[in-house]
Every structure is written in C-alpha cells, then in structure tokens.
Amino acid sequence: MLKNWKFRFKNLGPVKDATLRLGDLTIITGRNNTGKTYMVYTLYGFLRDFSELVEKVMDSWGDEGGFFSYGIPLPPGGLAKDLVESGSFEIEFSKEAFDEDRIQLIGQMCRLYSHDKIDYVFNANAGTFSKAVFDVEEDKRGPEFPPAGIAIETQMGGDLSIFYNENRLIFIYERDKRKETRVRGDEFIQNFLLQSHIQQAYARFLFQDTQNLFWTPSCSTSVRLATSLFHSEIESNRRFTVRQLQQLGNEHDLSPAEVIRRYTSRYALPIDDEIEFVKSIPDFSSEWLNSEKGGAVKDLEKMVGGSFTKSDGILYFIPAEGNPQGEKIPLHLSSSSATEMSRLFLNFVLNRGDRSTLLIIDEPESHLDTMNQIQFARALVRWVNAGMKILISTHSDYIIKEINNLIMLNGSFDNKEELLGDLGYKEEDSIDPSAIEAYYANDGGLVPCDKNAFGIEVPSFEDSIDELVRVSSMLGSRIILEGDEIE
Questions:
Q1: 320 and 301 in contact (C-beta within 8 Å)?
Q2: pTM (2 decimals)?
Q3: Which residues make beta-bridge pairs with 456?
Q4: Across all residues in the chain, what is the average pLDDT?
Q5: What's the CA angle centered on 192, arms 186 and 195, to 5 degrees?
Q6: 336 to 101, 280, 321, 357, 373: CA distances (angstroms)
Q7: What are the tens digits of pLDDT across the range 122-142?
Q8: Cα separation of 82 and 74, whole Å?
C-alpha cells in the first residue's frame, strides 16, 4: 500500500510544499538546509505511530464499540462483545463503504498527526510547527476490490479474521483454548482488548497491507556515531535529571520545566529512538553471531573489516585481519567508520533485516571512504533485491554514480556474463530503475530526478562536477601557458 501513496509536506521548516512517493529504494539528495531531514523525520514519526493514530481515529467513530465512518449498523453493546459471544458477525459492505472508510481514516489520521504530533517528533516547543501539514494522497484507483482477507492472532490467544464475500463483510473470532490466555479482570477488559485488535485488523483490511504500515520503521540517523559512543552518558544524565526533579520542594526556586531545560539536551524522536535501541542491545557472543548472520551483516563486515560483539554491557569491534586470536577492541577505540557502521550492523543482527520494515538511513556516506561508499551502494541494491524497503538521504556522488552503474547492469547487451565477471559484479547486483524513486530537494520542494537505462540524473551533483572540471581546465591551461612562456 505504501507504494500507492504520495506523502505531502507543507510549511515544515524550509519545506514549503513537497511530495514524496516511496519506491523499493528511495533516494533524496540536495544541498544542505533544504529540508531533507525534516521530511525524513516527519515520515518516520507518522509510520512509527501509525497504529496509535488508527486507534485514536477509530475510537472517535462510535460510542458503542463502533469504528465505521460510513454509518454501518453494529450489534447492541458493540462488535467485540458480539464476537466473543457468537464467534462471528457479518454486514452488507459495498465498494463505496470500503473507499469511504479508508479515505476518512487516513485523512483524519493525517490531520491528527499534523496538529498533535509534529512538535513531538522534533521535540520542539508547542506551536513551533503549528502551520505544518502532513498529508497522504492516494492513487485514484485505491486498493483492488474485492479486497483480500486479513487474519491476526489476538493477545488473548484467539484468531481474528476479516474477509469479504458477495457484498458481505464477515468477522470471525475463533477462540483456541490451547493458546488462550485468561485476562484478569472483568468482561469489559477482555472486550476492550479485542476491540483494539478489531480496529487494527480492520485498518489493515482497508489499506490491504498486512506488513509495512504496522511495523515500526527503523531510522539510522546522521548522529549514529554519537549515539553508539555516548548512550551511557546520556542515560546517566537522564537519571540525574529525574533525581533533581524528585528533590524539588517549595524551598527551591527552579520549576520542573527549568530543571529539564538546564540538565537535558533535546533530541528529535528518531535520535531518541536510536539511543533507546543502542541502550537496549543485549549481550551477544561472536559465536552466536556467526550462526545468525545474513547477507546484510556480511556486507557490513566486509566494509568495516571486522565484526562486533557486546559483553558486560560494552560494545566491541573485532578486526578481521591480523587478529588470529580474535581480540576485541572497545568501540570507542575503533575507527570512526567501524563505530558509524555498528548501528546498522546491530540493526540487521537483531531485526534480521526485517522485510516488513522501512529502513531509513540519513547520510550513509558519513565516515566512509570513497571505495566503501561504492561498496555501500552495491549493498543497498542487494538488500533491496532481497526484499527490503530502504530510504536514504545522501550527499554522496559516489553512491549515486555506483547505483547508476547497477541500473546499467540491468540492461541487455552482448557478452553480459563475461563483462560482469570482468567488472567484479554478479547478476543480482543489478537493479531495475522502476524500483527506484529519486528526488532533488530544492527551493522548498522535491524535484523528481529523471531516470533512464543509464541511471539517475541529479542536478546538484552534475552541476558541481561540471564546475570543478571547468575550473580545473582553466587553471591547468594557465599553468601550461606559463610553462611555455618560461621555456
């Protein structure tokens, strides 16, 4: 469903009005201070809190356990209660009802997010982004109709299904006593929990998406090196601030807000989530890692020349070359490139490169030499070809140029297999340009980059390189002329 949506950003920092459509690989380029990070972080916040927004909107649709905006009648006492008692419920359901509920749901979610959440995403003072608007524009077709069914397992152990058959929308709740977990409390609590599951299942049914929208996206921010190194100090400072707040009394002049302002730093939500992720990484051995690693982990090991482990709460880098004993180096003593890549490495180890998750990488070129930037571009394409969805914001001409090479690899030409071998590529390194959406941030908006069989055209990179070549040619010609005159 994500690929059928266009995300729109208005009045967001330097962004005046920009529209973004996600591909399997999405690339945003542009000069500094053009709003790339504003858009990436805003999108992250929306997808991260998608389920919460669904529930808040659907809660407003009915007072008696309802969640239909189209005015479909529900059983007395609510749908959850009826499903617990009878196991099934069905109603007439037209394409108009399907489309109306979906349009109403996503529209109200965007308005709620714009009004209540964008300040929170950037940890800004209330009202800072009061004029900002985030919206989702859907392709005119919408999801195919009749829609496919959805099935989920509930917290109580039963299975909830929603499917469509001959103009009827059917809900089925099957209780499995082998899995069933008794929820302590009265019937109200059980119905409340089931109601939440019904809302989530119905939203998935409306969007016809069983994965991406209901999984938290993963964001590797441009400050990932700092979060890997300083998360312990950040946590210590937070504990100190809590103690200061606990000790406040009438005799103190400082307000709680002033204590927080003095003793804490402010981070945008993706950075805060990244700190929490690094902090919560469990200890793991290199032996366990060797049994679990996949292709993405191996790609990163090749780039950094080693692997990682965590022991007694400390992250270590294990160099591959010249280290027969497998000695560990504390992360703060390792190279900046190893520290930089540790965040992505640990993400892949712990999440196994979950294909249902959008992976966002802000400035992946940070602390990578030019060859590793090229290797990273190849790795991105391999990860996308394996089924991952990735969004990057980059200033790297090397990454873009190598992706262009991999686009050209997708073409058909004579002696292709031999040429691939000569150039050190494999067939799976190629990518179809239709899988890529690329944009250039400029003048408060996003300009789609032209794509063809030769790659992606990025104006800022091409213009910068042309200017460098022009200046170099002029200076070189003057040196030659000066040399001729001396002779």
A1: yes
A2: 0.86
A3: 451
A4: 83
A5: 145
A6: 50, 22, 17, 27, 14
A7: 988 889 999 999 999 987 777
A8: 9
Task: Give 244-274 pLDDT, tens digit per residue.
Answer: 555 565 555 666 666 555 555 677 888 888 8
- Residues in contact with 374: Cβ distance below 8 Å, sequence separation at least 6, in sequence order: 398, 399, 402
Given a contact cutoff of 8 angstroms between Cβ atoms, the answer to whether 5 and 21 are in contact is yes
